[in-house]
Amino acid sequence: MEHVEHVRFGDQLYAIIVRASFREPGIHFFSTPELSQQLAFMSHPQGKSIAPHRHNKVTREVHYTQEVLFIQKGKLQVDFYTVGEEYLESRLLGSGDVILLCSGAHGFRVIEPVEMLEIKQGPYSGENDKTRFEEAAASEIRIKGPGL
């Protein structure tokens, strides 16, 4: 799909980007069952009924936090790194874009003032939840994909 990018380095899936331009009728799941976050796009016609339902208690084991960012406004640069803190490359996200960060490491640079929503497993355990490291120098940055 041209409006969906699976960001891979080697055989590892780092992220799934769904551009604001994605429009398909029905339900489209972008994430695979082994991911601890589910990402889907849903488009239904007026009058469609979704049966009332509740979600059952299901025990799940989560090893790493995965997060979804929805860019409401602005432009955000996502820098991808290996878990060994080596810079790989970057992508730009704009208004309406969504990214599911699945693995590896990442950093962000705000290119235009940004408003975004973050969805991830909780509760947040503060600094125990992440390891911070030095970002790549501006001269190393390689942006792949749409320049927005």
Automatic annotation (TrEMBL):
<dbReference type="InterPro" id="IPR011051">
    <property type="entry name" value="RmlC_Cupin_sf"/>
</dbReference>
<protein>
    <recommendedName>
        <fullName>Cupin domain-containing protein</fullName>
    </recommendedName>
</protein>
<dbReference type="InterPro" id="IPR014710">
    <property type="entry name" value="RmlC-like_jellyroll"/>
</dbReference>
